[in-house]
């Protein structure tokens, strides 16, 4: 795996925010204490560590595929560029997105592989991919997507029941055979040397329902509720990091928390190394309207009744929500601070200055 085992350890003297550790196998076994821990994490911070997930083999294979793909010549990768119209699948070069309302360009590159394309392989659904992806679609990409789907869908089912929704309510919005914006993403951020502040990924909430992140270096920071300061999240060997996204926040009337987070260079000596990460984003099916499921759950109805009118009734589909947020980040579409506001998700907390924690 690229630079993931030779970098310095995460420094012990850097302030971090603790996350609850949820044991996936215990949740699958119906352990009530573990399910309560998952619920606490999902409703208070919206982030947690996930252990015993049994996806490490698929993760290692995907990191190898990602490294091979990012190492391709730029002109080859640009044949698969996302473009400026809100497409979620393909390659994103460094410098084509803006990171703030001043139009600051980004420095990372990544590749998004559609769940739909992986599961339908070899028939393209949305687009084609570099040969480094297609040659490993059966051996690495599809197995990772299938395992990540299994994990995230099971966790969503557990949250569904805790919300008091009829069984299968949220599953109906996340059917694997239906088209969606679900993606596997491999990200490379360059080494960072010097005292100047850099953002790898601007402060944001995630677009979809549930995120499954794997990284070995620091850099991820969360903004805890009620805080005006970002804190690093320390990577733990063998643990994934999960977080709630906008869609589950909306479906639940705000009960499930989609928290603001960002990515900056890793702390101290780790910053001198490339930062690689692998993410699976579970998102609702394209045609699903993003609105609170008040009519199906008394708990959700009560939460919506205490929220500002219309806050959890977006009137848009999951596909429209994702496309808007992708378009608004593209540098070609940036016209000034007003256009940057279109990047907003569900966050309604003022985002603090971008200084390091």
Automatic annotation (TrEMBL):
One of its GO terms (molecular function) is metal ion binding. Transmembrane segments: none annotated. Signal peptide: none annotated. Keywords: Iron, Metal-binding, Oxidoreductase. Residues 333-357 are annotated as: Disordered. The keyword Lipoprotein does not apply. InterPro entries: DIOX_N (IPR026992), IPNS-like_FE2OG_OXY (IPR044861), IPNS-like_sf (IPR027443), Iron_ascorbate_oxido_reductase (IPR050231), Oxoglu/Fe-dep_dioxygenase_dom (IPR005123). Pfam families: 2OG-FeII_Oxy, DIOX_N. Residues 178-284 form the Fe2OG dioxygenase domain. PANTHER family: 2-OXOGLUTARATE (2OG) AND FE(II)-DEPENDENT OXYGENASE SUPERFAMILY PROTEIN-RELATED. This is Clavaminate synthase-like protein. The lineage of its organism: Eukaryota, Fungi, Dikarya, Basidiomycota, Agaricomycotina.
């Amino acid at each position: 795996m690229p630079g993931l085992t030779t970098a310095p350890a995460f420094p012990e003297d850097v302030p971090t925010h603790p996350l609850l550790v949820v044991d996936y196998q215990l949740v699958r076994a119906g352990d009530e204490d573990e399910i309560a821990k998952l619920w606490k994490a999902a409703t208070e911070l919206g982030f947690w560590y996930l252990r015993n997930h049994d996806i490490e083999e698929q993760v290692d294979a995907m990191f190898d595929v990602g490294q091979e793909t990012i190492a391709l010549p730029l002109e080859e990768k640009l044949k698969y560029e996302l473009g400026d119209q809100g497409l979620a699948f393909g390659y994103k070069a460094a410098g084509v997105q803006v990171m703030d309302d001043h139009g600051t360009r980004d420095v990372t590159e990544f590749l998004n592989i559609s769940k739909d394309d992986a599961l339908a392989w070899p028939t393209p659904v949305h687009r084609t991919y570099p040969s480094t992806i297609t040659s490993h679609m059966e051996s690495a990409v599809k197995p990772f997507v299938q395992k990540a789907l299994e994990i995230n869908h099971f966790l969503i089912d557990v949250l569904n029941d805790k919300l008091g929704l009829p069984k299968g309510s949220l599953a109906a919005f996340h059917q694997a055979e239906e088209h969606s914006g679900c993606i596997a993403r491999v990200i490379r951020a360059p080494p960072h040397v010097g005292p100047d502040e850099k953002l790898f990924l601007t402060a944001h909430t995630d677009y979809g329902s549930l995120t499954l992140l794997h990284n070995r270096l620091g850099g991820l920071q969360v903004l805890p509720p009620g805080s005006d300061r970002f804190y690093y999240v320390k990577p733990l060997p063998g643990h994934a990091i999960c977080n709630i996204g906008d869609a589950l926040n909306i479906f639940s009337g705000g009960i499930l928390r989609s928290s603001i987070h960002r990515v900056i260079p890793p702390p101290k000596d780790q910053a001198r190394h490339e930062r690689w990460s692998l993410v699976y984003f579970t998102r609702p099916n394209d045609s699903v309207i993003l609105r609170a499921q008040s009519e199906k759950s008394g708990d959700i109805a009560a939460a919506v009744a205490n929220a500002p009118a219309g806050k959890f009734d977006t009137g848009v589909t999951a596909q429209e929500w994702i496309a808007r947020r992708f378009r608004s980040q593209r540098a070609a579409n940036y016209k000034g601070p007003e256009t940057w506001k279109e990047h907003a998700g569900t966050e309604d907390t003022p985002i603090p200055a971008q200084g390091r924690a």
